[in-house]
Amino acid sequence: MPAPVAIRKNLELLRDQIRHHNYRYHVLDDPEIPDAEYDRLMRQLQALEQEHPELVSADSPTQRVGAEPIQSFKTVKHRVPMLSLENAFSTDELRDFHRRVTSRLELDIDAPVQYAAEPKLDGAAISLLYENGVLVRGATRGDGTSGEDVTHNVRTIDSIPLRLIGRKYPSVLEVRGEIFMPKAGFTAYNANARTTGEKTFVNPRNAAAGSLRQLDPKLTAMRPLDIYVYYVGEAIGVTLPPTHSEILNLLQEWGLKVCPERRLVQGVSGCVEYYEAIGAARDSLPYEIDGVVYKVDNLAMQRELGYVSRAPRWAIAHKFPAQEEMTVVQGIEFQVGRTGALTPVARLAPVFVGGVTVSNATLHNIDELHRKDVRVGDTVIVRRAGDVIPEVVSVIRQRRPDGTRRTHLPKKCPVCASAVIREKGEAVARCSGGLYCPAQRAEALKHFVSRKAMDVDGMGGRLIEQLVAIDRTKSPAEIYDLRQEELAVMDRMGDKSAANIVAAIEASKSTTLSRFLYALGIRDVGEATAANLAAHFGNLASIEGASVEELEGVADVGPVVASRIRAFFNEPHNLDVIRNLQKAGVHWEDSDPQAIPAEGPFSGKTFVLTGTLSGMTRDEAKLLIQKLGGKVSGSVSKKTDFLVFGENAGSKLTKAQSLEVSTLSESEFRALVGGE
Ligand code: 5U1
Prior knowledge:
alpha+beta, globular, 26 strands, D-amino Acid Aminotransferase, Chain A, domain 1, CATH 2.40.50.140, 5 domains, Helix Hairpins, binds ligand 5U1, 36% helix, 676 residues
């Protein structure tokens, strides 16, 4: 018996509701309901469909991962060829592109040509075909003429709508974009794969491409994939707007996800400004990019410009310097860090990568070294992404010379010859020498004087290593009796730099409790935890005397960190160091933790801080906000009430602007907090 009309209606209503909430969550990044409510709607739909299996349709939100594994990939011909992009590797090449554009359009070179600009994602290109609003095919680019049918896999990606929303979408829509694995998902995926012994991905691009080429969609469904669409290949049944930027906005209205960092810019100068802004924000963007793309915005101009072989004359990719290069491993050494951790480091034949010359790359830990099986003499791929320490990504096994040998974990510390200990289940092996080990001592001092700790301006690693080597600074307190004359005779020093350092040492005596706690280098107590401890207890004596249970009451402090803090203060040697530092004049103002009220003018308001503030540290700004009853969060979302930005603010500012979150410059923030 056919299901009653009321049930059909109810089903469609539920599906539309779920599609709407998918859109709010995935495309707009602005959910309207909590996850639990969404799950309830989904369960309701599943139950109804179970009762009425004859009503299940392929575009139902329940049908993402339903398909059985396929035997092999079908080749599909693209309805319209998928183009590639010409590249520009310098501003000169970008200027040449703009010159060609204006000259073909018979415009003056300074004519205000508008370009639609967006980041160039490092993922896998995809074509999605919608017929009457329903996703019917997903295909890889392949050779541009035909690709592989990966419909079963693209259906599992939550941010790809199975059905378009709104009413006025075309009867046939073929849209192109990039499927990518966000950085956070990539890191988490690899971390998990390492613990389960599964294959890890070399980079997010391979992760995206590899995930799309799974025969079993259940495997793809477990990969954290996402999409941004950037081009319409074909649209039948609607007249598209006259500019590319308006088309992107329309795609978003139809439920497709477009990049929030897209902008409209003018001329070469606008392109260069955009390139630099995205380059500066690159590390903080949640996805990997390898450049930016500019497209002439006006479609009539695009048509006039046409194509050259397989690339349009109206678009270009402006690439960032390569982040991966090949080089040869000349040696493998073990570096000893502040906590004694031994890190294998590959000494490399110098290679220019990511804009700098690299001659050392980390191998992380002994397990990673063995997993990648890196040997002296190997040709390897080195990666340097932004400020991240360069790493050896993989070995090119075909190029391995004869007679190479595996590297083993040393039994003794290469610096102080103390025993190397690796606790069961720990990836990290450590030197057991503690502060007897000059390497640990030097690293502890480097941390102590670093910018976010005591901020002794100008006191660099080389100077500290020399001071440790001559046994002049065995403990941080001894930094405070360094004299100008003895500093001036050190390598690469002179009277002026020595005087500057002595002044910086003096200035660092006046500090804050959170900086001081961070400077002590307690394991797992980073900047944020130190700030939380300071805000919670208000003074050092209370922290020194706090029990593990009391410490666990601090935001972000779990049992492991709490016991590390307790163990640190149980150690008489550490208490001596603290007393000596205070005797040397290190001081701060205690705060009254009770002064941080539950209620205040900022109650219920969430702030995000970004960029460099000139008149206060982030911790100080955070404390101010907390004192007025507000909360500080690390990331921007629709729930953010204010974004406070300093100099060199990056993607958080862009995101806040695109989400229409109120933004405050440092001076506006100061005015708001009443000049505190
Ligand atoms: N962001 C972006 N990436 N990308 C790649 N836009 C873009 N456009 C492309 C390609 C291949 O081609 C268009 C010219 C269709």
